Amino acid sequence: MGMMGEEKYKAFDYHIRSLSSSARDSNFANDPSLLNSVKSLCDLCRSEKSEDLIARVYPHLNRIFQRCLSSTSQSQTSNGLLLLAILQFFLDFGDVVLHDADPNLRTFFKSCLSCEFADPIVAEATLDFLNANKKKLSSSFPTLLPQFFPLLLKLIAWNGEKLEKSFCRVFPGLISQGSFLPLFPSIVDLPILVVALEKVEKSSGSLVGSSIASIQKSTAPEMLLALMDEAYTGSTIGDGGADSESEDSSTMAVADPFFIELLKDENDGLAERHWASPAVAAALQAAVSMPMSDRLKQALRMTPRLFDMYTAIAIREVNDSLICALVPLLMTRYSNLFPEKLFLYEVQKRIIELMLAAFNRSPSFIALLKKPIVDRLGEAYDSPAKTELALQLCWAIGEHGGGGEAHKDAARELFESLELLLYENLSSSRLGLRESALGSDSAKSRKSSQSRLLCFVVTAIAKLATYHRELLPRARVSLTKVARSRISDARVWKRARDYLGLMNEPGICLSILGPCGSPSNGMRKPGTVNWSEGGTKMISHLPFYLLGAQEGPPHDFSFRDVLPGR
């Protein structure tokens, strides 16, 4: 203390007395000078680096922190900024005073941020605090942000793009082994979260100062039912109507888990979201048909960008077991998204890219996930989105040989599913059964979709049989049926005919249809040249069909003779 200048000592003494008097004042939270005193004392402790100073300040701040928390439920005044300033002291000097800040951090999220996430000042200050202490939080409190990621998603959903850059810097800290899987549906459901929050605000007033979690745990369940009724059916219990009572009783039980899961504050694992509920589907369609709020529009724009960050981290840092567990979730959610056209396009495109990247990283996933893949192929007719998903899965099955050489049983079962899909289309396609009942444009669209799917199925069958040669006889039978069918779209039967011709030349067929392989995995494809090694290769390594127009012995040729000039 003796090293401190006189002016600093006076300032220190003033602020200590201010803290002491505020701690005794029952209305201390309304004192604007209190926050200034806390920040000034923190700055003095940093600049002086005096353990004696820190030890004198600590008891006052600890006492005020506890009093703030106990008064949060009764006071209408925001304590968020004050608590964050005290938390900063705990993080900076906890080692000096032997204080573990973990309980304080968790209590701040549960008792303060859960009530004040909608306050733009507190929201911005919270993100600034998390960014300023990113290294400390990740090393000393690695489970904190993964535990409270739903609350932080509520914060960004409500406050929008103005805090997006700051939130994106925090985002990697939300991902851990326990949060990676449940984080995916929470990200893609960000627009639905906005809809739910806006409905709660409309029904119960400002979100600032009231915890939604407390509403969920209320002893008056009729209040929650009233909020859900408006959120999912677009009407209130008091609206009446001829059959409103029966509708309420039938839909509330289904909507309830979806609503509570969506608005939770903490990560409690991967929970099923009840998309099958007609009430949920009707509510989402109503949200799209009505003029969208600016907050919802921002969420629709932010979600693809957050998903990009999630994907980058998944591919770069997450282990194979979690990625494998994620793929079925990707397939399930592909057709269950907020129904806005541009949003659907952007998110579905990213889901496919992540799924295919996972298969490319570990082709064995295709064999391990045989059951959900076969299920998705069986749903190929249900909707355009499911048709597109099935089409992409067909491509992945063929491209990666059904999981690889070590998974022959899985490859055979996948082959059988492709056969079934093919024969259903050739005989009595469910896509075609309703064409007479549809308008011409709709019928053409379905027909085009069917042809595109068939092309992918035919290709997948040919590629799978090229990799697993024991499937070749069955593949020839399947492709022959397609080639002889002469269905209206010539692209399909011509493709089948071409593949049949290729199968008569095994080396060329493996070069063209075989999956990507390298000598390291024991898969060498005849007729394939690694052009980067061209300077060390003899011309005899070239496939003979590329040399068909050349004359003379092989050693007379150079690559310049074979490759077209520039």
Automatic annotation (TrEMBL):
<dbReference type="InterPro" id="IPR056856">
    <property type="entry name" value="TPR_AP5Z1_C"/>
</dbReference>
<dbReference type="InterPro" id="IPR016024">
    <property type="entry name" value="ARM-type_fold"/>
</dbReference>
<feature type="domain" description="AP-5 complex subunit zeta-1 ARM repeats">
    <location>
        <begin position="30"/>
        <end position="154"/>
    </location>
</feature>
<feature type="domain" description="AP-5 complex subunit zeta-1 C-terminal TPR">
    <location>
        <begin position="288"/>
        <end position="516"/>
    </location>
</feature>
<dbReference type="Pfam" id="PF14764">
    <property type="entry name" value="SPG48"/>
</dbReference>
<protein>
    <recommendedName>
        <fullName>AP-5 complex subunit zeta-1</fullName>
    </recommendedName>
</protein>
<dbReference type="Pfam" id="PF25154">
    <property type="entry name" value="TPR_AP5Z1_C"/>
</dbReference>
<dbReference type="InterPro" id="IPR055450">
    <property type="entry name" value="AP5Z1_ARM"/>
</dbReference>
